[in-house]
Amino acid sequence: MSRIIIRNGQVISPWQKIQADVLIDGETIAGITAPGAVTWDDAREIDATGCYVFPGVIDVHTHIQLDTGVYKTDDNWEIGTKSAAYGGVTTVVDFATQFKGQTFEQALNHRLEECKPAYIDYGLHMMVTDLSRDPAKAAQDLAALRDMGVPSIKLYTTYKPNYYADDATILHTLRAMPSDMLAMFHCENDDIVADATRRLVEEGKIGWRYHGESRPAIAEKEAAVRIINLLPPEKHAYIVHCSSQQTAFALEHYLRLHIFSSSFYFETCIQYLVLDVQNYEGSHPEHFILQPPLREFRKERINYDLLSLYGKRVISVLSTDHCDYSLAKKQAKNDFRVTAGGLPGLETLLPLSYTLFSDQYEEEHLVYFESDPLMHLVEVLCANPAKLFGLYPKKGILAAGSDADVVIYDPAPQVVIKQENLHTIGGYTPYEGMTVQGKVRTTISRGRILVHEGKFFGEQGHGQFIKGAPFKPSESRSEKRIY
Ligand SMILES: [Zn+2]
């Protein structure tokens, strides 16, 4: 196996920022040393002077090659993971869907077959739609799923009749779920969405520009708070893509109460920090159809309310909810009710979030961060996702013995995001024309260089299924979390 030394970069972990060399031996990190301390005759050397060296980004909320039964994304695992590698993402945790009548094992095996061409490593969550009504059988099936390396399940409070789970189903599932698993929830009250949609339809307002109004923020807040109230003792939940500050502030309140033996974690996605509701009034509202929709910010064009909740460690993870639908599908009909929801984002996650977090060093933007904003960025893009989904410390940090998943990020260039420079298949990016600071120079996955200076060196099938270890709440809660 080959050896690589990354020299003179600023190596970033959640607890420190140091000038150091990163030694890679085969698929793992052999050590982090003082610059120049170690020389290997047979090693390839990469000079990272002036660059940051991050652990590979872990996106735990993606939908590569998604088939919902109604819509299909246009990408596959080859296209999706290539685009991820260009963005510095070295692991995704995507979803296997259990369709009605399927066992977990059938659903998992079907998905693993699709994943085979991946260039980067992947884990999977299970979308549960057909759990046995018998409590003992349900508990047994969920424990078996955990033992197959899938310690997380996902449920939806919306999307009748396909994925929707009512409160009784949610309670039944949570009771049956072992305490060392994590339940993920898409939170939008389906009745509130249906009612808002009905009222818009009565007024003839079905165009894309009304999408935001059809899924009001109160629908999300109500469902998120309900999930926390439904959690039985010693059961653990993860609320995906918190989109509005209303929801986030309500969740902060619950964290402060400190009365639960259960625990809960919150994620948001980069689009809810940097894209707002004004996009529905622009010339391409169809580029911004997603659930939950974009929201109104209180100031400027960045959601400082949500960003500050990262600073206070109320929100643990930053992800994308990546869905690569073609523009043709997005534009088929100017009707928000039938337009496929979801945005591509794997390739732009790191540049956008680096720009946002590093900007917090500037006084006029200062959001309260308990630690250095870049150390914090590594926490929410790498370490926390790895801890929550059983991948840590194999993934999520740069340390001796960890997988050699590394990103070299050059902060110097200013780059304007353009679809023509990206590697997705959909034909558009919701971030078109936005300026970001810096770019990914090198992406390494388990010791293999995938991207260097814009060129691609990945090998189809290099990516492996990484089994998630059982969920451990004590290790997942950041020691520094203030609540
Ligand atoms: Zn999603």
Q: What ions, cofactors and ligands are bound?
A: zinc ion
Indicate the structural class.
Answer: alpha/beta
What is the mean predicted local confidence, pLDDT? 94
End-to-end distance: 45 Å
Here the CATH topology equals TIM Barrel
Q: What would you give as the CATH superfamily?
A: Metal-dependent hydrolases
Shape: globular
Q: Give the number of domains.
A: 1
CA-based gyration radius = 21 Å
Largest sheet: 9 strands, mixed
Q: What is the percent of helical residues? A: 25-40%
Q: Provide the β-strand percentage band.
A: 15-25%
| CATH A-level architecture | Alpha-Beta Barrel
Number of strands: 17
Distinct helical segment count: 14
Q: What's the CATH class, please?
A: Alpha Beta
Given as residue ranges, the uncertain stretches (5+ residues, pLDDT < 50) are: none
